[in-house]
Design goal:
- By secondary structure, this protein is an alpha/beta fold.
- The protein has one domain: Alpha-Beta Barrel (TIM Barrel), CATH 3.20.20.
- The strands form two sheets. Strands 3-4-5-6-7-8-9 form a seven-stranded parallel sheet.
- It starts with a strand and ends in a 5-residue tail after the last helix.
């Protein structure tokens, strides 16, 4: 596995997004997850990403169960802010209003969340701790400043933020050094390509694309909505809706065309393009199956020519919003 760095720490150029192992994409399976974790370490995929909201803490427990005796082999990231347990939040007025999705960036909530994450993961520190979203009620300086206190306390090593625009990143970085930004980024999501991505390069901040395979769509494995399991979150995603689905298949056709030419899979080509965006880029494709993990890891070896990159870069982003309407207000915060 080729190496990139996060705050000076060497990590595999392709990381592992763990969300789908217990949240949004079907049933959880500890045995299957353990097989993925073991193979990931064999392949040098040592940057693992989770969050406290994934399965209401279950995803962290899933990782923690495997990590016993192996903590030093993984650069571990998790997140807080998205409220998964309403008894913990400081925003009780939102609970009373029955607001469906609450984000809480207050120091009081963070202090509860970090201790619970450490407990579930079974570790004494987290390498990279993200604010999962920007809380519009709390200045980013307040959230990030409190996260800096966690560094001083030894509970986390580095601070990250997720789904931010450039202006927010600059303010946060002035408050406490930001090690990584995690935004959605892929051939079909390019919102921050012209501002946040180059800013990370200038500031020496890792840029961590989540959903770099367009929630699996860019792999070419999803040809109809029926290819998704019942209960799969993507069935409610606007980009998978009937009016957008067919248009977005045209995007996949272009990726598949390049893949045939270079002798790689569509997933590898999509990830290789993401990796080509700069040395600060460390994507975290998610999977819960070994064969897809191996495929994703192989993308680090795919050589795209300048002409290939230009052709892929000319692809128009996907049709449809990234999330349902209620969730869109918390992106690019």
């Amino acid at each position: 596995m080729k190496i990139r760095t996060i705050a000076g720490n060497p990590v595999g150029a392709v990381g592992l997004g763990c969300m789908g192992m217990s949240f949004a994409y079907g049933k959880a399976d500890q045995t299957e997850a353990d097989a993925v974790f073991g193979r990931a370490l064999e392949l040098g995929v040592n940057f693992w990403d989770t969050a406290d909201m994934y399965g209401a803490g279950h995803n962290e427990q899933l990782i923690g169960s495997y990590l016993k005796g192996k903590r030093d082999k993984v650069f571990l990231a998790t997140k807080f802010v998205n409220v998964y347990d309403r008894t913990l939040t400081s925003h009780q007025d939102l609970v009373e209003q029955n607001v469906p999705w609450i984000v809480d960036g207050t120091p009081a909530y963070m202090k509860k969340a970090i201790d619970l994450s450490l407990q579930r993961l079974g570790v004494d520190h987290i390498d990279l701790y993200y604010a999962h979203r920007v809380d519009p009620r709390v200045p980013i300086e307040e959230t990030v400043g409190a996260m800096g206190d966690l560094v001083q306390a030894g509970k986390i090593r580095y601070v990250g933020i997720s789904e931010v625009r450039a202006e927010t990143l600059q303010r946060a970085h002035k408050t406490f050094p930001i090690a990584a930004v995690q935004n959605e980024f892929s051939l079909w999501t390019r919102d921050t390509e012209e501002d946040v991505l180059p800013l990370c390069g200038e500031l020496g901040i890792a840029y961590v694309p989540y959903s770099p395979l367009g929630r699996g769509f860019l792999t070419g494995q999803i040809k109809t909505i029926d290819d998704l399991e019942d209960g799969d979150w993507r069935r409610s995603n606007p980009r998978f809706a009937e009016e957008n689905f067919t248009k977005n298949l045209e995007l996949v056709d272009l990726v598949e065309s390049v893949a045939r030419r270079v002798g790689a899979t569509p997933a590898q080509v999509a990830l290789a393009w993401v990796l080509s965006r700069g040395e600060q880029v460390v994507p975290i494709p998610g999977t819960k199956r070994v064969k897809y993990l191996e495929d994703n890891a192989g993308s680090a070896e795919v050589q795209l020519s300048p002409a290939d990159i230009e052709e892929l870069s000319a692809i128009k982003p996907a049709s449809g919003e990234r999330y349902p309407e209620a969730s869109m207000k918390y992106v690019n915060g």
